[in-house]
Amino acid sequence: MKLKPVGEIRDPVHGYIQLTDVEKQLIDSPFVQRLRKIHQLAGSYLVYPGATHTRFEHVIGTMHVAGLTAEALAQGAEMDPELVQEVRLAALLHDVGHGPFSHMYEDVLKGKSHEEISQRVIRETSVGDILDSYGFSPKKMSEFAVGRQRSRAPFMNEIIAGSLSADMMDYLPRDSYFTGVEYGKVDAQRVMNSLHVAAGHLVIDDAAVYAYEALLLARYEMFKAVYFHRTVRAAELMLARSMQLADGVLGLTDLKDLSRYLDLTDELVIHSLVTLEPSTPDLREARRLAVDFNDRRLVKCAFERVVQRKEEKVGLLFADESAREKTVAAIAEASGVDRGKLYLDVPTTPSVPYTYTKGVLKEVNLLKFEGNRKVVRAVPLSELSLVGSIAGFMDVLRVYTTQENRPAVEKATSKLFRDDGFVETLV
Q1: What DSSP line would sit under 246-301, residue for residue?
Q2: Do 206 and 266 fall into the same domain?
Q3: Would 65 be classed as within a structural domain?
Q4: What is the pTM of this model?
Q5: Domain boundary among 244, 275, 298
Q6: What pLDDT, on a 0 to 100 scale, did the predictor assign at position 394?
Q7: What is the pLDDT of residues 138-180, one digit of tens each?
Q8: Domain identity same for 178 and 33
Q9: Buried-most residue among 254, 288, 307, 347 (CB within 10 A)?
């Protein structure tokens, strides 16, 4: 089906993006417009001044990339052309439930994800009414938008989420463009043009495996340089703690009233935090942290190591929150620093992306044409030339504290981990 455009948007990453009527109506709805007020990269703008782009640009870019992928598959008769519009809408709405400061907010919610909230927004607001008026089921689209639809073949979900997703092929070049970091520049077009469908799943032409490797390596490098940059994480840890301390008063994690949640934007949350009445020690600390975040007076990294998770004690810190709390208590006692001035940061984002089912990506399906026959082989990531070395998790362990406490915490942390018997495994 050739989609009939009724308008276009000029995007700095993808150029002109054409819009259909239903897309335009959704974009003009307050629920997608709200994404203009949510930073794509949370507090990264405190390190990279250009990183002030928002979720709004990202969802439109993702819609565009998803559409290009779907159109390529449809031209190859590997998917129904009538589904191209459906794919674009799912991509447009995939982040509609993001809270203030994007993924950082999920650290505050604990147990809830933006995907769950996105599904509610699609089903419970006028977004569903718009979809329904064009013949799209709000319930099915709410599942499709987060890669969980069951009425279509799995490859449809894989266009939206996973290691070949339009999401990743938009955010890497977009984040690279706005931060000025070069690592995220990828040949997404080559990857898209090399995708096929076999046994209901996306596969990639083995002649383009180098482009796919470059995509995964770019993601890894962007995580090191931007997403888990030590100063970016310092800012985000402070803001997350401020929000947690103020949650009882501000109701930041109260999701019962969806309309109230959807009023929360980056600017509103920061304003609410810096203007708190300091009637309790927790609220006083919450306000101080928010003011320091705003003024870029950030906590300092006192200890940082790349670790081997296969070591039992190391793995426990990444998997068990109570183990992390005990470690913070031990550092506080050894250093004489109040626990409230300490942050133990153990990012658990995998070095390579999850599959669309949120499983660990272990292999890639490569397609080779032998005459008219498609031959697919599953290649373990460990056999790819470079990606195998980064498969798994970015096991970075960091401890942060205030500037004046940094020497004491650095000394106490180093001694504690050495005495605990796993500092030798740090590299």
Answers
A1: HHHHH-TT--SSHHHHHT--HHHHHHHHHT----SHHHHHHHHHHHHHHTT---EE
A2: no
A3: yes
A4: 0.92
A5: 298
A6: 60
A7: 999 999 999 999 988 999 999 999 889 999 999 999 999 999 9
A8: yes
A9: 307
